[in-house]
């Protein structure tokens, strides 16, 4: 079984990165684990919240 973590946008938080790396090390013992980072949606100021969610959803579906 493969486990893939799909993330929208990169994070600058050291705490979040540390937790993801710890989880990656733990689960990597049992199965393959990968991380896919989808870039943030561009021009979000001109988009409503539902439009942003739709654009992010479409990017996730393209990855799948």
Structure overview:
The chain is elongated. Helices cover 45% and strands 22% of the residues. Strands 1-2 form a two-stranded parallel sheet. It is built from 2 helices and 2 strands. Helix 1 (14-27) links the parallel strand 1 and strand 2 (32-38). It is α+β, with helices and mostly antiparallel strands and 64 residues long.
What brief labels describe this structure?
64 residues, alpha+beta, two-stranded parallel ribbon, 2 strands
Record the SSE blueprint:
Layout: E1 2-8, H1 14-27, E2 32-38, H2 49-63
Parallel strand pairs: 1-2
Quick rundown:
The protein is built from two helices and two strands, in the order βαβα. The protein has about 60 residues and is an alpha+beta fold. α1 links the parallel β1 and β2.
Q: Strand content of the residues, in percent?
A: 15-25%
Sequence stretches where pLDDT stays below 50 over 5 or more residues: none
Main sheet: strands, sense, barrel: 2 strands, parallel
Mean pLDDT: 89
Measure the end-to-end span.
16 Å
Radius of gyration: 14 Å
What is the string of helix and strand elements? EHEH
What is the helix tally? 2
Count the strands? 2
Helical fraction equals 40-55%
| Shape type | elongated
Computed structural class: alpha+beta
Strand order of the largest sheet: 1-2
């Amino acid at each position: 079984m493969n486990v893939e973590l799909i993330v929208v946008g990169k994070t600058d938080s050291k705490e979040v990165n540390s937790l993801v790396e710890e989880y990656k090390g733990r689960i990597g013992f049992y199965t393959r684990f990968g991380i896919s980072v989808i870039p943030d949606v561009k021009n979000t100021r001109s988009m409503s919240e539902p439009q942003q969610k739709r654009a992010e959803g479409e990017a996730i579906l393209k990855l799948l």
